[in-house]
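Sequence design from tokenized structure. All designs in this work follow the same two-part layout: the structure record, then the generated sequence. An example of the structure record is given first.
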């Protein structure tokens, strides 16, 4: 039985209407934004770790190192093309109130537009739209403008989603308020009124501070919001942490009608009901941490069932996955409440990954702070990240540790599952799984596939012999990743970011916190963080890379 707090709805609030093209033109008329104040060290976005990761050391994986390791190649798949996206310098100049923000938290959505293929990149805390060749079609605009909120708003975990079923665009982010003029935690959802990403968006919001949950130490923070969609619904899943205390209360799912959001965005109908599901940490064998919602890939049949995949990330070592399902989600269109059910699936072992090394090189910020070397890159945890639904299967991935030499490396675990919904239950079977293990470190994997399950797994790559770079490898349906790892872009230097040094950390750099991939018109578009050959600013030198390759 699932352990959930009493069922309920949350109120969806209508905010401003914003037009991304108009915002960009207004910024252009004002001229280049002033350079950020470099006196401060910038702002670090929240990272709500599971309780087990706070006080315990990381456990070693049970599995031995692979008999053979995956190799690397500097060549790319035929037809691969890419470009550099937003950078720390662009982002800081775009947000002079906060200056530098780390990590960028990569968001990506790709779809059609009046200008052709539109590639929407949304990070902490800026958005830009590019053509498939990398030409800027908009110009970077700050995230606070996207949601029509004050410049002092601290936003985190951006998500961009193009819906293949409706052709509409969705942008989400949460902000941490002051609890007086705004809730302590607010989830924003911007929905396009048309199928163009350049036109008007209507902004909605949900109070996610859960202030009535005094037993859970709330008001709380709805951290690491992830989005998903099926035929009928749009979904956001968060991890709930108390703002002023140590409480972790589990995961919260917010479900609403996708069509209802679009109709309300156009002003042609009432506000849709938003159903909330509070899955308590004590009632889930895996600790109700990081229930990752699925999205249907372009060209695949979309079910009226929304699936969520969860690993045992609440411990340092895990085995198996849980598959949650909201059944009969067509009920959302009439304000109904689909039942939430769950099942478990036996899988390979996995463990919390170790931090990644990076090649030594110039680090002027660190040297100015009296440091003698570059820091390691945080890999966060072994939680499932993005989940793709394609051809009746779920494709999921996570970062994992594995034994390597006398220590451990960070690898990429992958899973292919087949879920089957019932009248009042769900079952799921494991089709295949495995782990990509290399002599270097892989960070923040993500799988992008077409309706047949073919595409790529992409990630960041780093090692004592490599600056932070971006890589990918062919993903062949149930067979999983195959061949060598292609390096799509080589990092130029070590990451030299304010989060690498005290007082922010003790030699651990915030990185990621995730990569993205999406199938569109025969290509898989991918995005991840790396140290780009682009101008830096005083407090950081991160950049983003966006690239695409034909489906193999």
């Amino acid at each position: 039985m699932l352990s959930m707090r009493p069922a309920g709805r949350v109120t969806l609030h209508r905010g401003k209407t914003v037009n991304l093209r108009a915002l960009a033109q207004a910024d252009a008329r004002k001229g280049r934004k002033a350079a950020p104040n470099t006196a401060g060290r910038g702002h670090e976005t929240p990272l709500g770790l599971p309780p087990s990761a706070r006080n315990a050391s990381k456990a070693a994986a049970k599995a031995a190192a692979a008999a053979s390791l995956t190799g690397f190649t500097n060549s790319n798949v035929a037809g691969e093309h890419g470009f550099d996206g937003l950078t720390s310098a662009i982002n800081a100049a775009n947000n002079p109130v906060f200056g530098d923000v780390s990590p960028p938290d990569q968001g990506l959505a790709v779809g059609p537009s009046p200008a052709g293929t539109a590639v929407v990149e949304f990070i902490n805390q800026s958005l830009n739209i590019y053509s498939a060749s990398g030409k800027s079609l908009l110009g970077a605009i700050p995230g606070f403008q996207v949601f029509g909120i004050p410049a002092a708003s601290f936003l985190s975990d951006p998500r961009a989603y193009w819906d293949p079923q409706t052709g509409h665009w969705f942008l989400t982010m949460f902000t941490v308020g002051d609890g007086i003029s705004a809730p302590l935690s607010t989830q924003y959802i911007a929905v396009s009124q048309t199928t163009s990403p350049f036109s008007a968006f209507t902004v909605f919001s949900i109070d996610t501070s859960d202030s009535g949950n005094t037993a859970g130490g709330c008001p709380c923070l709805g951290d690491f919001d992830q989005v998903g969609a099926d035929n009928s619904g749009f979904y956001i899943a968060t991890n709930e942490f108390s703002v002023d205390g140590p409480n972790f209360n589990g995961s919260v799912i917010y479900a609403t009608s996708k069509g209802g959001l679009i109709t309300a965005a156009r002003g042609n109908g009432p506000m849709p009901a938003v159903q909330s599901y509070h899955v308590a940490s004590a009632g889930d064998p895996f600790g109700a941490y990081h229930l990752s919602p699925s999205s249907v890939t372009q060209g695949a049949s979309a079910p009226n069932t929304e699936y969520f995949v969860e690993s045992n990330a609440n411990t340092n070592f895990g085995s198996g996955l849980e598959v949650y399902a909201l059944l009969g989600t067509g009920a959302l269109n009439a304000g109904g409440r689909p039942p939430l059910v769950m099942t478990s699936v036996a899988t390979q072992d996995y463990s919390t990954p170790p931090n990644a090394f990076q090649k030594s090189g110039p680090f002027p910020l660190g040297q100015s702070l009296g440091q003698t070397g570059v820091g390691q890159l945080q890999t966060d945890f072994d939680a499932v990240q993005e989940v793709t639904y394609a051809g009746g299967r779920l494709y999921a991935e996570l970062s994992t540790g594995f034994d390597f030499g006398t220590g451990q490396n960070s690898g990429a675990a992958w899973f292919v599952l087949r879920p089957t919904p019932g009248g009042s239950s769900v079952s799921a079977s494991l089709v295949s799984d495995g782990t990509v293990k290399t002599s270097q470190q892989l960070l923040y994997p993500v799988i992008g596939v077409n309706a047949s399950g073919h595409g790529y797994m992409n990630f960041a790559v780093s090692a004592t012999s490599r600056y932070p770079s971006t890589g990918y490898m062919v993903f062949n349906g149930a067979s999983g990743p195959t061949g060598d790892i292609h390096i799509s872009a080589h990092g130029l230097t070590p990451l030299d970011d304010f989060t690498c040094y005290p007082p922010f950390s003790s030699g651990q750099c915030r990185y990621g916190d995730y990569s993205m991939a999406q199938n569109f018109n025969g290509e898989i578009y991918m995005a991840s963080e790396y140290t780009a050959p682009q101008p830096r600013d005083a407090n950081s030198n991160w950049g983003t890379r966006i690239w695409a390759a034909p489906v193999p």
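Residues 8-26+60-550 form a domain with the Methylamine Dehydrogenase; Chain H fold (CATH 2.130.10). We note this feature because it recurs in several other targets discussed in the main text.
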